[in-house]
Amino acid sequence: DKVETCHSWSTNTTQQIDLALNIFFMVYFFIRFIAASDKLWFMLELYSFVDYFTIPPSFISIYLGRTWIGLRFLRALRLMSVPDILQYLNVLKTSSSIRLAQLVSIVISVWLTAAGIIHLLENSGDPLSFSNPHELTYWECVYFLIVTMSTVGYGDIYCETSLGRGFIVLFILVGLAVFASWIPEITELIGHPSKYGGVLRKEGGKRHIVVCGHINYDSVSYFLKDFLHEDREDVDVEVVFLHRKPPDLELEGLFKRHFTTVEFFQGTVMNPVDLQRVKVQQADACLVLANKYCQDPDAEDAANIMRVISIKNFSDDIRVIIQLMQYHNKAYLLNIPSWNWKNGDDVICLAELKLGFIAQSCLAPGFSTMVANLFAMRSYKTSPDTPKWQNDYLCGTGMEMYTETLSTSFVGMSFPQAAELCFVKLKLLLLAIEVINDDGSDSKISINPKSQTKLTPDTQGFFIAQSADEVKRVWYYCKNCHEDVRDEKQIKKCKCKNPPAISVVPPRNGNRQKSPGKVNSMSSITSPGRKHYHGRPTGRGSAGSVSERPFGMMAEDQGKDFDFERTEMKYDSTGMFHWCPARSIEDCILDRNQAAMTVLNGHVVLCLFADKDSPLIGLRNLVMPLRASNFHYHELKHVVIVGNVDYLRREWKMLQNLPKISILSGTPLSRADLRAVNINLCDMCVILSAKIPSSEDPTLADKEAILASLNIKAMTFDDTIGVLTQ
C-alpha cells in the first residue's frame, strides 16, 4: 500500500501484469488516434489524458527498477465506458437500464479515482519536505470517501495532510452536489425499475380491453365514467391503458380511484413488445381514442390508422374500434387486409356523427338530444323541490338502450303482445327483436315488426330502460309465478322448474353494451321502404309535416336555380338520394342583394365559421340526410350556406351533385347577411365551426357558435314579412 517501492521487474508479478495491460492500452491508443477524424480534439479528450498519465510510468519503472503508483488510479475513469461496451454487446436494451448503467459507472469511477487521489496525497505527505505522510490503505480511502458523502466528513478516518484536506473541501463542494442528484435517481431506477412496465397478469376468466391513442385526464375520465357506470351492474372487464408517456398526477389519481378495474402500462402500440406485454391477442377489443382538439385532424387520423395497422399486424383477429375525426379517412381502413366489420371491427367518425345528428334534427327537432340521452350513461335523482316536468325529463335522460333474452313465457306471442306486456307489467319499453331466418343461417334486427312475427325461444330483445338490472325482469318473468304481481320490482328469479330448453341457456346480459353493438351477420331493416317518384315536382313550397316523414338515410342530388318546376327528379346510383348534374360553385354563389331578392321560406340556414385553410369537416354528411329519396323533390329543404367561399370551394367537390344548395359569401356574425337569407323564416338554423380549436383552453372551442347564437336570438324582425310570404 506504499506509494513507492523498489522491486526488480523480473521478480514482480504485479508489475509484469501492469506492463502487459499498458501495452494493450498503448496499442488501443494508437488505433484510436489513427481512426480519429480530428487529431487535435482526440489529443485533448479525457481518455487520452488517462493514457498520458498511466502508460509511461509503467515503462519508466522498468528502467529505474522502482515502482511509483503515481496517477495510475486515473485508469478507474475507464469504467465510464462500460455502458457503451454493454450496448455494443446488446446487453443493455432499454433506456432505464442504459441510464442506470451510466449513473452507476460514473459514481463508481469517480469514487475510485478520488480515493486514489486521497491515497496518493496522504501517503506522500505535504511538499516540499514530504515529512508528514499519513499511511492509509487504498480501501481505507474508499471507505473514507463513502463516509464523507454520507456524513460530510465526520468519521473514524480523516485526512491529516494539507493537500488531502484541501482536496476533500473541493470534493465535498462539487461531489456532494453531483452525488445528491445521482443517488436518488439510481435509487428510483433500482427501486422502481418499471412502475408502468411489466406484463399484464390476467386472473383466471377475467376479460380485458386495451385502450390507446389519445390518453389524457379528460378522455380517460369520460370513457371510464360511461364504461364503468353503475347502471351496467356486473361489468367484470379490466380496462388496460397503453400510452408512451407516463400519466400526470391528475391522471394517476384517477387510475388509483379505479385501481380494481383499471391498469396503466407505459409503451406504444407501434411496438410488438408492448402489445405482447398487455396481451392484445387475448383482449376482447382494442379501442383507439382520437384527440378532438387536435390542430391537424388528418394527421391525427393518420396516426390512429397507423396504430390500427400495427395492432392488426400483431393479431389479425383482434376486434378494433377506432375514433376518426374526418369522414373521408374511413376509406383508408378498408386497405387493411384483416379489417373486417363482421368480426366486430368498427369506426366511429366524430364529424359524421355530429353532422348526421344535426341533419336529423333539421327534419325532427330534438332528435339529436334524444339519441344523445339514450347513448350516454347518466344517473338522475328526483327532488321534491324540482318541477315535475324537470324530474320527468331527468328520468328520460337516465334511460339507455340494453339487450336481453326474453323468457320462455313470451314464446308464441306476437311483437305487439310482448311489447304491451313489457310496458304494462314490467315497465320496460321493447323496441325491436332479433329475428332469425327459417334456415337459421342469418339474423336481422326487426324494429316494431308486424303482428305476424311470433317470438321464439331465446329471442333477443332491445329495450329502453334505466339500468341493466331492470332489463333482467324480462328474463326472470314467469307467467306462472309473476302473473298476479303488481309491483314490477318484485319480479325476480323464481324457484319454479324451468323448461329443459331454457335450463341450459344462460341469459345474455344486455348490460355489456348500451346499444345493440356487435351483431354479426345481421342486416338491419330499420329504414322504411323507399318510394321512387318519377313525376315532376309541382312547386317549391315548404316541406310537409315532420311527423309524416321517416328518418332519411343520406342524400345526393341537386337542382341549380330557383325554377324547380321543370327540374326532372334524378337519383344517385343507389337510389337513396336525390341527385343532379355537377354544378360550378359560382353558379350557386349569391351576393347579399340576390339573396334579399330571393323568396326564401322553410329553408335551412347553415352558418359556417371557417378560414381558407381550415380542416374540412365534411358538409356532405350534413346535406345528404336532407336529400334522402324518401322525400318528394318539393319537400326538400333549401340549404343556404353563409360562410367563407374559399373554404367552401374545397368542400364543393362533395356537394356539387346535391340539389337546392346556395352560398352567401359573408360571415355568420353579420346581421345584414342573416337578414338577406331570411333567417327568421327558416325551419332550422345550424351553426358550425371548422376552425381549429385552441389546445390551451378547450373550453373556448365553441365560442364562435355561442356568439352567433346570441347574435341571432337578439335580432328583431318585422312579423308582417312572414305573414306576406305565407
TrEMBL record:
Region entry Disordered, spans: 502-549
InterPro entries: Ion_trans_dom, K_chnl_BK_asu, K_chnl_Slo-like, NAD(P)-bd_dom_sf, RCK_N
Location(s), subcellular: Cell membrane
Domain RCK N-terminal: residue ranges: 206-349, 601-726
Record's keyword terms, sorted: Calcium, Cell membrane, Ion channel, Ion transport, Magnesium, Membrane, Metal-binding, Potassium, Potassium channel, Potassium transport, Transmembrane, Transmembrane helix, Transport, Voltage-gated channel
Top-level taxonomic group: Eukaryota
Protein's name according to its UniProt entry: BK channel
Species name: Trichonephila clavata (Joro spider)
